[in-house]
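Request: Have a read of the protein record below and say how the chain folds.
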Amino acid sequence: SEAEKTFQRFAVFGDSSSSGAEINNKNFSKLCQDCGITDGKTVTSADVDTVFNKVKAKDAGTITFQQFTEAMKELSQKRFQGKSPDQGLQDIYQLMEGKNPATTSGFYQAARAGAADQHTDTSKYTCSHQECLDDSGKGKDKDAAGPEETTDNSGYGRDPKSAGTYDKKNPGGK
């Protein structure tokens, strides 16, 4: 069935050793999230964890498709209140139809790009920062170009007693 195919796709997601016959709690939660079974109101991630632990065998870390079906029946009663268990299960299976595990790499790349843009886009600068830049984003005054390189080779540290000792202790200035 289509639900079993979706179950298998999520079961093997991120686990190359999985045969797809059993799904762990992490991938079960991901399936519920990606397929829209969890909505944050009637079905939360805590509900998903509770149902998973309820249907799995005591010493097991995974559930079979048969146990998965039991879990979906239970979640369907929360998600689609007032519907018969069979109708609720069919509605859940419709949510799962054709779904694949979503990868989030594109999201993070977009977030990073946006973060850099807000620092380099001078049109978004406000108040006094805007006054230091010309239209091209370059500094208007000498301070905007950065601090001038000044090296004090008169001595070590800030102690005035050591002034003039740098060249004596370091011939050649290195």
